[in-house]
Fold this protein.
Amino acid sequence: MSAAVGDHDPDAVVLVDVADGVATVTLNRPESRNAINRAMGQRLPVVLQELEARDDVGAMILTGADPAFCAGVDLKEFGSAGGAPGDVAGMDMGVRDADGRLPFRGPFPPRTKLLIGAVNGPAVTGGFELALGCDFLVASDRARFADTHARVGVIPGWGLTVMLCQSVGVRRARELSATGNYLSAEQALTWGLVNHVVPHDELLPFARTLALGAVHNDRAAVSEMLRLYDAVAATTVHEGWTIEATASRAWEGAGFDPAEIEARRAGVVERGRSQLHG
């Protein structure tokens, strides 16, 4: 069963489809390699907020209309409009607090639901940052990654120097940013940037399978685990132990239903058997 968020119009810059608890969000400017213009920059955060608020959505997938994932900020629009590239992209314009301040870091608004990046083609500069903003990545064998900020003569503003280091380590991140060289899908897998590389036609089905795994888990527990990963990544290892222990005690303090836990345990055992022997 599918339900829309109002973006099945093929001319829309962001398309959305919801089925079985999974929302697939597609950047839809294929003629421009899904470069982020003002319309897309304003629309994408709003779409993600709408999906975050929906009870029938448990996980999200972000992808691009072939042949690219995202070529970054639309530099043609930047060149004609003047101002900074971030102003042209308008990524932060749709979601501000009551005082007009930006209430979030990076390219996406705060969320509690899993966001998988399904990288179907080149993800470049700002498009690379969109990919890095996802919880993890699945890549088509056609995917490519490049940080060309320095080649263009701009500095990243959506967290690339933070998130790329977390993904591949600081020395490899420096190499990518200083050279602007492309990283193939297979290299990205070897470097730990992506979790999986699959044939192009299998990309979305594979990503959906992973998303459904999260949807069928305890959604509140998945959200708390994602929150913990973010909190621990932002601090020291020592403090991370404290953060997790505090969260665990608080979670247990909310109370458990032993019968429900036992039913889930049985389901986990059966799922494990099917994955090991299926």
